[in-house]
Design brief:
With about 290 residues, the chain is of the alpha+beta class. The chain has two domains: about 1-130, Urate Oxidase; about 135-285, Urate Oxidase (Roll). Helices cover about 25% and strands about 40% of the residues. The chain has helices at about 35-40, 50-60, 65-80, 185-195, 195-205, 215-230, 280-285; strands at about 1-15, 15-30, 85-95, 95-100, 105-115, 120-125, 130-145, 170-180, 235-250, 265, 275-280. The strands form two sheets. Strands 1, 2, 3, 6, 7, 8, 9, 10 and 11 form a nine-stranded antiparallel β-sheet that branches. A two-stranded antiparallel ribbon has the order 4-5. Strand 4 and strand 5 (about 105-115) form a beta hairpin. The longest helix has 15 residues, at about 50-60. It starts with a strand and ends with a helix. The mean pLDDT is about 95.
Length: about 290
């Protein structure tokens, strides 16, 4: 049981400069006994309102250096404070506020919300077990208008889909990776310096002057995972899900026009989805 959708903004001031972190937190616990379920005995139950207050107090006292460290702090507090907690899981996602700037000069207290993917993390721990940390990005909408096709697929009496060697590839990407047992990582360095998000964009798009051909949505997902694993040594396993958006060319013959893939409409439903989990052999065998 637990508390979902704890939303708040943490404002930190350094002189004139303001720093913001707006997050949404979900925290869930499993207790050493199920007596509240079986017997209606609530003596071990930590109220979800208390859980909400703990999250807010931690934000006030510790701040939010990174969402990963904040999730770790929440797990540690529950494990060290409440002996009846057998397992804790915390999810944190960050609202993508970016500081406004003009001619390279950053504004001291004004921000813009840029919907270019939502950074999130999960921390979970069993009592007497290691704390395991995951991080990821979701709601990342990507499109390339060529260098994508789908050919040579299985065909039978049910097949109506034509082969395509030049199509729009568009979808919403979810990526989640594991760091394994939590160690003293610089999570912001991994995010901003190692640039996991930029790895994803590079693998999806290819070189800026010519792109890279994608033989399928599945191949694109694998290319993203392989590039992240090759460049970011801290990542042990990466899961990727690409929910596809398809576009159909509008037939304009009755309007006396030739439409050479210039006007297309999205296919709202049903839509496709590709998912894959890829990891380092040593970690998977462990």
């Amino acid at each position: 049981y637990g508390k979902n959708t704890i939303k708040f903004l943490r404002l930190h001031k350094e002189g004139k400069k303001h720093i913001v972190k707006e997050v949404e937190v979900c925290t869930h616990l499993r207790l050493i006994s199920a007596q509240e379920y079986l017997e209606g005995n609530n003596s071990l139950v930590i109220p979800t309102d208390t859980m909400k207050n703990i999250v807010l107090v931690l934000a006030k006292k510790n701040g939010i250096a990174t969402i990963e460290q904040f999730a770790i702090d929440i797990c540690n507090l529950f494990m060290t404070t409440y002996c009846q907690v057998a397992y804790v899981k915390t999810y944190v996602q960050e609202v993508p506020w970016q500081r406004l700037h003009e001619n390279g000069v950053h504004h001291v207290h004004s921000f813009i919300c840029v919907p270019d993917g939502i950074r999130f993390c999960e921390a979970e721990q069993c009592r007497n077990g290691p704390l395991v940390l995951f991080a990821g990005i979701k709601d990342l909408k990507l499109m390339k208008t060529t260098q994508s096709g789908f050919e040579g697929f299985h065909k039978d009496q049910y097949t109506t889909l034509p082969e395509r060697h030049d199509r729009i590839l568009c979808g919403e990407l979810f990526c989640k990776w594991s760091y394994g047992e939590c160690r003293d990582f610089d999570f912001d360095c991994i995010w901003y310096v190692n640039k996991i998000r930029e790895c994803i964009l590079e693998a999806f798009a290819g070189p800026p002057d010519c792109g890279e051909y994608s033989a399928s949505y599945q191949k694109t997902v694998n290319t993203i995972q392989m590039l992240v694993l090759s460049r970011v040594s801290q990542v042990q396993i990466i899961e990727a899900i690409l929910n596809n958006t398809f576009y159909n060319v509008v037939d304009m013959k009755n309007l006396g026009l030739t439409n050479d893939k210039e006007v297309l409409v999205p296919v709202e439903a049903p839509y496709g989805s590709c998912a894959c989990t890829l990891g380092r052999k040593k970690f998977l065998e462990a």
